Amino acid sequence: MHFPSLFTGRFSDALSRCSFASQLDDPDRYAAMIRPAGNPKFGDYQANCAMPIGKLVADSNPRQVAAELIEQLQLDDICETPEIAGPGFINLKLKDSFLQDRLAEMLADDRCGVTPVASPKKILIDYSSPNVAKPMHVGHIRTTVIGNCLAKTLQFLGHEVITDNHLGDWGTQFGIIIYGYKHFGDPEVVRQDPVPELAKLYRIVHQLMGYHKAIKNVPKYEAEIARLEDLHAAAQQEAEGAEGKEAKKKRKAAESLAKKVASARANLESARATIAATDADPVMKQRAEAHADIGKAVLDETSKLHADDPENIALWEQFLPHCKDEINRIYSRLNVTFDHTLGESFYHPMLGEIVDDLKQRGLASESDGAICVFLDQFDAPMIIQKSDGAYLYATTDLATLRYRQETFNPDEVLYVVDARQSEHFEKLFAVAEATKLIDAKLVHVSFGTVLGEDGRPMKTRSGTLIGLESLLDDAVEAAYQVVCNPDRLVKLNPPMDDQEKRLVSERVGIGAIKYADLSHDRTSDYKFNLSKMVALSGNTSTYAQYSFARTTSILRRNEVTEADVVERIQAAGITFTHAAERALGLQLLQFQEALQNVYEDYRPNHLVDYVYSTAEAFSKFNDQCHVLNAETDAIQSTRLALVVLTGRVIKQALELLGIEVVERM
Ligand code: ARG
């Protein structure tokens, strides 16, 4: 059930019958101007087209347009008589009888009333795609959780979805562990316990590289700070000398410079902290001195791998399966799967060909020894082969595009990747367009950063990114404290045994992390706050899971099954006798609208908002409408039906968010 399109269809018919029909440039656009009502007092939806049409039509005004439209509208079967409000809004209130019938239908439908889209698209989703030589960290949550939710939601809507985990299994990170293995590794330990040992080698080399980079950067940052401070002082002076508007402008400029100074200082501080951490550790300090050229040496190991050096290829073949095992363990805990896992290495043999192809077609050319694609709209070209012959991340992405076109021929390709890669994707899409490598809509579904309590990217005390696994463990522990505390559990009969407690806290804990992530507009950064995420009240998955568990407990207390309720409604239908029933019923029928909104701009937070509003509507209903002691059998049947539907909708919505429910908590 999708009310806006239902109204749009009716408005489209009505508009074609209005006296001003011939004056409308794009009637469908006006017909589609249906929004949820700003205030439920005035209706459920509102049509906003009379205002723009009123401006367009000669000798008319919006209220007149609205009046004529209402005369032509055929809505009797679904809607009360529309009302005009304010400058020309048309308020639409759905008829109770219409809602009741739709709810009865929904009860008999195993898709919660969501009809599959009429013209399904083939959508390829590139998500998660971690660089695998290092353990997954907090930075991988967002792509994995958002990508998985989009995949499930679009599939549920009826689209054909192909998921592809574009593993970073071929880049510098392998140069890092190969270097680490050769210089600090113990082959026996790597053989016996590869995963933690490789992670350790990665950390050592990464830290040494960071150390030398920081040493180089400190004087740069110092100079930058001095330069910015001078500019800031000058700007401040100018602002003091200026008056009125001019002064305001100058003050703004000074403020913006002050911010730049602060950020340069933060960079300096973090570089100094990086240096201090190594200085404080005699073993690492000694290693740092002995490996002063480590940055370049790691790149050399990577180049040798790419040039098919037998030793490095053998190491890569030895390490890769363990790296994959490591990430697969996390995926299985997160309950995430992929149709394909075509890593960067898969495309390696195609890179030379793609560069040649672009050169031959005159789309790529040489500049300073490198092969580049020049684009009018960008200052810098896209480099696809460096002067030393090495290929880049971008080259792989071009080969990937062509492979996807040839193999899957998708209508859309979604890249669920950090916003910091925006420029890469802008260029990639521009090159794809210019070179016609693919015939699909390409979208960078970008997202912001997960921040710690201090508002900076979340790190451990030693400065490395927090491992994803330990984060999951912490969440499960926090969930245990909240949902398995003895005060709450006394109410459960029979009591929870240890196994149930473990299952509940795992589902609640993992759910909390996913839900919190998906609840934020993906483009903004958010602060990671575990205690808020697992709280039993507020916009959390714990609250949604608890609402689901309440629906099952109501059925248990009434000693009915879902099948009993379906049967009762088939016989008696649904009839509202309380405003809270209608509000909940309408909310449930808006499930499809929420899902379509997710697809509209690839934003799962619409679905999270929907789950929360549903849980809230259910809670109000539950406070105000007795089920067990309902006045009549018919009233009780309606209420039971709403309870069943709430349970189903919340369960289905959470499942699309990648979250599992529990029967009781
Ligand atoms: N491996 C990359 C990273 O960790 C992300 C890859 C995203 N997908 C792509 N086709 N570029 O930054």
Automatic annotation (TrEMBL):
Record has DNA damage as a keyword: no
Catalytic activity: tRNA(Arg) + L-arginine + ATP = L-arginyl-tRNA(Arg) + AMP + diphosphate
GO molecular function: arginine-tRNA ligase activity
Domain DALR anticodon binding span(s) in chain numbering: 544-665
Coiled coil: 211-274
Subcellular location: Cytoplasm
Subunit structure: Monomer.
Protein name from the UniProt record: Arginine--tRNA ligase
Gene: argS
